[in-house]
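RETRY 2/3 - previous attempt timed out on the joint model. Re-submitting the same 1469-residue input unchanged.
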Amino acid sequence: MPWATAIVVLPLATALVVLAVPAGRAHLIRWVALAGTGAHLFVAGLATWAYWQAATPDAAVARTATTTKLYLVERHSWFPSLGIAYLVGVDGVSMAMVLLTSLVIFCGVLASWQVQDRAKEFFALLLLLVTGVFGVFVSFDLFLFFVFYEIAVLPMYLLIGIWGTGRKEMAAMKLTLMLMVGSALILVGFLALWWAAGGKTFDLTQLAQFRYDPALQHWVFPVVFIGFGVLGALYPFHTWSPDGHASAPTAVSMLHAGVLMKLGGYGALRIGVYLLPEGARDWGLFFMALTTVNILYGAFGAIRQTDLKYFTAYSSVSHCGFVLFGVASCNLLGAKGAVLQMVSHGVMTALFFALIGMVYGRTHTRTIPELGGLGRVMPWLATCFYIGGMASLGLPGLSGFVAEAHVFLGGFFGNAWTPPVYTRTLTIVATLSVVVTAVYVLRGLGAAFQGPVRDPHYLHLNDATLTERLSTGLLVAALVVAGVLPGLLIDLVEPPLFAVVNRLNALPGGL
Amino acid sequence: MSAETLRSALFWVFATLSLSLAWSVVGNRRLLRAAVALMGVLGCSAAFYALLGFGFLAGIQILVYVGGIVVLLVFLVMLTRTQALLEDEPTPWRHKVGVVAAVGFFVVNLWALASLPDAAVQGPVLGGDTRAIGRALLDAGPQGYVLPFEAVSVLLLAALVGGIAVARKVDVAALPPAEANHG
Amino acid sequence: MAELLHAGGSGLHAWLLVTSALFSLGIYGLLTRRNAVGILLSLELCLNAAAVQFAVFNALRAPGRVDGAVMALFVVAVAAAEVVVGMALFVLLYSQRRTVDVTELTGDGRDSAGGPP
Amino acid sequence: MSYAASAIVQHAWVIPALPLLSFLAVGLLVRPFSTRWAGGVAAASVALSAALSWWLAFDYLQFASPPGPLPTLLPWQTEWLRFQEGLRIDAGTLLDPASVLLVVVVTTVSALVHLYSLAYMDGEAGYGRYFAILNLFTFSMLGLVLAPNLVQMFVCWELVGASSFFLIGFWFDRPAAVAASKKAFVVTRFADLGFLVAILLLGHAAFDVRQQLGAAAGDLQALDFAFLGRSDVLAALASQAPVLGGMTALTLGCLLLFMGGAGKSAMFPLHIWLPDAMEGPTPVSALIHAATMVVAGVYLVARALPLFAAADGALTVVLLVGTFTALFAAAIACTQDDLKRVLAFSTLSQLGYMMLALGTCDGGDPTGHSAALFHLFTHAFFKALLFLGAGAVLHAAHTGDVWHLGGLRKPMPLTHALFLLATLAIAGIWPLSGFFSKDEILAAALHGGHPLVFTVGLGVAGLTAFYMARVYLLTFWGQPRREATAHAHEAPLTMVLPMGALAVLAAVAGFVPVSRWVALPGAAVHTGIDWAVAVPTTVVALVGFAAAGWLYAGDLGRSEAAAARLGRLYRALRHKFWIDEVYLWVTRKLIFRLVAAPIAWFDRMVVDGSMHGVGVLTRLAGAGVQAAQTGQAQAYAAWALTGVALVVGLLWAAARAG
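RETRY 2/3 succeeded.
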């Protein structure tokens, strides 16, 4: 069974089916989209099972490997003259990301149940977008990776520009332009990697065999890292994210903050650190410092926000900072923490944006001071908000804690070539964010959901509908499962990370 | 006076006439006069065709171009007359640009011309034979023109349909009374 | 008189000189006229000059063939099509804008709104 | 008989699992359908848990092989989180005297509070939610107590904090309750930052030690208490190079650990959240803010005592902070008007006692450790009783302001009797439990070579008697000072019964030989009464009573005169030394206004602005190009011809050159 291809093709096929439905039948369109994404969730689950079957015997080998072994591989020549191939497959990290994306898109479709305006185009574009995301996660040919990366970025422009709110055109433009700059950097990096390895192949597994010249790595690494960092909201290239998230429709925010921003961390880890260990060694500390700024800056920025979406967007900046911080700390704990944080933040922020969309759909405002006392009116939504908030501030038992604990330990343990005083200081500074996060989460949610009911009209609003309960309930369940049984996720993502870390550990100690 | 000399003299007569009329086409402030001058230029061109030995072409030129197209243009001029454009006098800047471009083009042409060897008409030209032209137009062979011919007919049809479609929207009754209409 | 229809009296250079001059005059008109119809007239001048030049080359360089003549015919046909479309456009334009002054036709997307700006 | 034969010792995990299951069941299944059942299920599960924990304590003591010390058992553990090899975090149940003691205390008080709440919370919106979170709290507290490693402790520690947050903010439409819950969470969270960094520091240091030990470390993981308590590990930790300011990772880690503990146990200056937390329902205050959660800090220090003892000076900090908090809070308690607030400051003061006792171990003599745990044990009962009594008063009179109460002993005789008993217990009157445990603490201070601390402790004992007598007299004696107070009535049976049970415990707990059971090796075990301590404490307590009686039993004008005479000191005490205001100033003015707001501004204006600036530059460049795009076909034609002319000109030049 070509699992990897199925993962990519299924959403695309669903998009085509959606396009074939007459535009007037919005209800049918929704059901098609839901069925398609539901089937995808199922297929992703089966694929995980297949991966698990294939990968478990290699678990011991993986601990000492220096190259990631792929599973469920499909390889077809595409442009043989340039060494471009259709090479798809999975490893633990990409499997985890595929599962996350499946879940988020499924819940995103559920959360978009109310979309009426041009529903057909909306769902088709959404599915196209997610096709790109899945493509990125399963492709192991850099060129194919880039193609999918662009597919993932571009529909965003239309989705925000057409179905967004507020200053949507500006936000869409800004987002697209900044991400394009990022992908230009990535392309430069990819071409450099391809060219330096002889210009024969874009195959990641083969490029990983090649030892790049440290001088080349020294300049390619920051290019690639910043290129991916733009999507991963690396300070100071994060400013597209608050505007973009605030303007995007619910499902797009969910997908974007939940999954698309993870492409940044994924790429930085998979391409940046993995292919360019010496570059990572040279630049690790710099990027740790920059992402520490990210973490605190996003958290402090969130305190002053009055729009729920800006609030969540700044908190995303902070949380995505953890991802890149983990990547930049260049050790197993950090890398694992980064991947766990990707999953955790993906679910959490998708939950947040889904809930914000639901609250906005009822109150028609996202301004926190205009809300108030909603906990009395919509207990389900408030409860889910608080669970998400608790995950966000790293409450143990929810997924955020596991990830942040890894990232902090990773930063604190540091690596062989950086003087520990730097990494530890940065880590301790970064831990301050747990307090700041508590402050802004409790302030924001308290103002919106606690206290007396602010507007008497709110008393007539109803709580979540069945689809909304299903969507948010699934995400909450994912947060809880990932938090209570972190071993499941760790077992999945750990083996391929050994390869990344073993390459780093094999480096001659720098400085 | 030999036929050669006569032809040469006729050529120069028509050339002078043609150029001066052309000057009027582009330079006359009153568009209607320019249109009439264009008619003259095209007439001269018919004479040129004749001098070159293309009798059929000359006839077509008179019939279609002068008699059809330019008449349309005259109508057009009259249909779109406005007070503001009654005198189409170029501004100095436009005039300069026009002169530079036209002269520049002419000079470039002259340069190209200088690289060509001169030649004269050698004898009767086949193009004078209407049947030959007809055959070439309907020839499906490698030297034939049947495809362009058909394409041009489609083009004409399209232009016809398009012209009707575009102009159909004009609801003359609904037009606001325009002071310019009587200029 | 019939003889006149069989051969040209002047050389290639003289012919081309005249057609080039005609074409150049057309360019001048093309660039200076404000009236769209005037531009169309100038364009006819250019087209006609080109058509004549086809005929000239045909007669003087390849008298055994008819390609130039055919091209000249095509030019006439294309000119007819062009005038038809141009006429339709300009009449419509005039009905909406009350002018065919090309300098007032700026592409700011408001053309369809109708009425003079 | 051995422990293997004891089902409950082997399956001690059932004790925390029951409230957890009940939390899930009540929260997800029962609550939407029936509030009555929600309360019933929740209370029943905790009651069952309490019964099991008594069984556990019984078996644990019964099967110990005398005469040796009680063993430390780890009957169940499973991998929970694998950071990396040697840094695995297990979930498990650690059974030793301290944890068994705490399990008993937590489940017993919790069960009684659940029972009490059935009536107390009757008719509240969110009744089911209340019980679900109360269950979650009980589970978390048990998990904390049974934690075999620092991380499990931290996990449950945070869960305890979160459930406390939700319980304090139970009436979430009251702004004061919302503010109090936020404050409690944020302040403790700030302290937990210390705990977290301590875990990082100690985890790293211990991991290094573990790597050095190699096979000698066995299967023990770096953050296991069993590993951290080993003498070779402690020696290795203590001999590590200093990391900051001459302190080793061990010392720094212990100080930060204490910061976490001080936050949860509301030690000065992190105490500010506890008085405000009284905005929550009173049973919650009884359970969380008197008997269980707030002692977590004490428990943490007690649990990590080997580390603290090995760390240079850490225990001295504990001693100082504990002593100061005991005095400071007791002094403030003398001036507060709200019944529950007085009890809250009293709790602070008693927690200070416990910390103080732990601090006296700095000389290497671990006697204070058992004294602290003993006091923790007794305090849980009498303080919970005091809170439940206050709750009964609140329930009846709808106000907690002592100046609005008065004369309640007639309409509420049972509550009065129980409150009096608890007052005597906390004041340390023989033969009630407070007498024994407080004396042990003071004895530990005296014999541990801290006479000054002993003196302060003695003073605090007097203050304790004074402020407890003050609120007791103002509440129950004299005449009702408000209409509502006059119509007060006795609490229902479901409220009185748990209070009665607690009263029995508060009365007899002093005779339980807790300090002998929990004694660390080397600790002096008290037998009988230490007259050198008992006499002075009883005397100061009686003096405190007498002073309160003189001021508050008869003419209340006397108290006003006394307050006036104290002047500035009285005002400072009433305003709690303006510490809340300082905090507000720091957070609002300094952090929000000088950090958060500038960052938000900087982000929008500078960072985003520079990104926009790039956009504007691009647009300007575009505008330059746009000028050529006039939409005028003639202009294009001119450009095209110019281009042609240029190209031909170039060709020409090339031809001439060639």
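Chain D touches chain B at residues 634, 638, 641-642, 644-645, 648, 652 (CB under 8 Å). Closing ticket.
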